[in-house]
Amino acid sequence: MKNFFLSIIIPCFNEIQTIEEILKQIKKCKFPFSYEIIIVDDGSSDGTTEFLRKIKDNSIKTVFKQKNSGKGSAIIKGLDYTKGNYIIIQDADLEYNPNDIKKMIIPIFENESEVVYGSRFFNSSKRRVLYFWNYIANKFLTFLINIFTNMNFSDTQTCYKLIKKEIFKSLKLTEKGFGIESEITMKISKLNLNVYEVGISYSGRKFEEGKKIRFKDGLRALFVILKFIFK
Q: Phi and psi dihedrals of 141, rounded to 5?
């Protein structure tokens, strides 16, 4: 793993309750490879920005956006600052366990994979029981993408997408919000790449705990799927 260098992009908006803890969790992982963290503050107003400005760690880059534009815009911004040869997105909340990243890199070395998805529905070891309709929406969007791309993903809306840098940057992403998850998958599916899925644990948040995705985001994801069928 000597030549493997991972860029972890953390899009962040109003996550003062969790951002410090997720950084601690990443540090505790003791990855057997080199990595960097790029945090993109998407116009936070709850004290997150002030906390990030105080960070003194050479392995962490902080990028600040003046205006909140959405998760997708933060990811696109973060891509400009990556130095790794692979990139993964890590949400700033505590829904995804950074330890699972260790499992996700295995197909890269064993199967020469260029893209690895961390699936919440594929042999995952732990999953918090939460909202039924969110689950159905995830399954429905994945089902639609599979129909239109002739792929067999189990979870296209997952945050954990580990992608080779030159491929990630070549996608020329445009979606500013949560629709970027569907855009990435629709574009990846047209490139004839070696794609794998790995089961991950998932501890979803309740809305009162700060969960941000809403019904309108599901509608946008549907629009994105239809938009990129023929593009």
A: -65, -40
Note the pLDDT of residue 204: 62
How many other CB atoms are found less than 10 A from the CB of residue 111?
A: 12
Q: What does each C-alpha distance from 192 to 113, 169, 182, 224 come to in angstroms?
A: 12, 16, 17, 20
Model confidence pLDDT, tens digit, residues 23-64: 999 999 999 999 999 999 999 999 999 999 999 898 899 999
Q: Which residues have CB under 8 Å from 207's CB, separation 6+?
A: none
Tokens of 101: 């990243």
Structural tokens at position 186: 């629709």
How deeply is 72 buried, as exposed, middle or buried, from its count of CB atoms within 10 A (0-12, 13-18, 19+)?
Answer: buried
List the beta bridge partners of residue 164.
86
Strands (E), 132-206: 161-164, 195-199
What the block records as the tokens of 170 is 């070549």
The CA distance from 10 to 22, in Å, is 10
Tokens found for residue 32:
């057997």
CATH class, 5-227 region: alpha beta
Give yes or no for a contact between 106 and 199, defined as CB atoms under 8 angstroms apart. no
Domain boundaries, the chain: 5-227
**CB neighbour list of residue 230: distance below 8 Å, 6 or more residues apart:** none
Q: Chain-centre distance of CA 107, in angstroms?
A: 18
173: region left, alpha or beta (phi > 0 left; psi from -120 to 50 alpha): beta
Strand (E) or helix (H) holding 86: strand 86-89
Which helix (H) or strand (E) is 62 found in, with range?
A: strand 60-65
For the question of whether the overall pTM of this predicted structure is more than 0.85, the answer is yes
